[in-house]
């Protein structure tokens, strides 16, 4: 090998170590970037050649820069992110609904207790029947009559307001889903664009567009937080993304560099290309689960209670249908329950005869507090009215409690999977520091080698000059 060949080899080695140092520096700079996957400079010799004195290896070079990435762990993180996001979104919505009840129901607290128990539906319901007991004891007392009307009005207001609060939460969830649909479409467009860029940049060199792949994986994680999906790898490193309909059929969303179908919200479900999607994760599904599950079940329970209250009290207060109703007959839901327009403390009667000592109507209504109802017998609730409400709230509280446990457990799973991914793809400062020192010493050695060859060439030139 000639001195000039050695000089060329030394220069190539210097360049290779310099590039490896740049890659190491990039890794260190991204140590806290969770969307970054550690990169490795693949340093190798080029193809060798046959010379007069034998086979000679080629110069050192950086053949490629690759990411240290596990496709399996990336997929696991995406899946767990989707599940966690769904549970967290559902938890948040149900906690809002819990707050609208004005009492804590998810920590074992009964429906009739709590910080705001004085304003709870349970206490309002009990207050109404207690007021009728007071009227039964003093049928001619105008104050007792006023107490009955005020207690009933408070109960109506409480039911109206609670249902309105729950309806507003459901409306808010629909708005949230609508906003998520726009974000999803933006992510799908970004992923399709990155697919095209990756294919163009990796032509003949698969896996080389490392920064673009990092960006795409970050978009996939963001997409997973919003909805569930499946991916497959096509030509030139491009991804195909699809969702699933109710029949289990794949609905394409992204095919390479093209967005096949954008998503939309039809007021009920997320759709793609007009087809309703069956999601298993993501904040969209969590919002749907809360809207149509826990919150709607709670509203249904309140509606059943309101209907039973109106029906039973009117039957006891106006058994013949001739003395006027206590509650408006048309208001049989929590949203519409109201006092009969003609009812005032002056028109309220304690007994059908109107005599001073007649309290039979007030007694009949007061006794409803202890009456047990059954849906199997055609009633709208099971148990007493206060028991029915307590059971509705208790079931809702149990739903939240179970969900809290699921979120805690799922968060632990996601943290574990993410930690495993980072152990593979994340930057290890100790390892990078070692590499930094190694490449630095190799760079210094290459520089020293070049200096030596340069000195030998100078000597050779000087010898040639003196001979001439």
Structural descriptors:
four-stranded antiparallel beta sheet, rod-shaped, 9 helices, 468 residues, alpha+beta
Brief summary:
This protein is an alpha+beta fold and 468 residues long. The strands form 4 sheets. It has a 4-stranded antiparallel beta sheet, covered by helices on one side. Strands 9-10-11 form a 3-stranded antiparallel beta sheet, with helices on one face. Strands 1-4 form a two-stranded antiparallel sheet. The protein has helices spanning 3-29, 71-100, 121-137, 142-201, 210-226, 283-317, 360-366, 385-425, 429-467; strands at residues 39-45, 49-51, 54-56, 60-67, 230-233, 239-244, 250-255, 258-259, 263-265, 270-272, 275-276.
Structural features, described:
This protein is of the alpha+beta class and 468 residues long. Residues 108-118 have low confidence and may be disordered. It contains 9 helices and 11 strands. 58% of the residues lie in helices and 10% in strands. A 4-stranded antiparallel sheet has the order 5-6-7-8, covered by helices on one side. Strands 9-10-11 form a 3-stranded antiparallel sheet, with helices on one face. It has 2 domains: 3-68 and 426-467, no CATH class; 74-415, no CATH class.
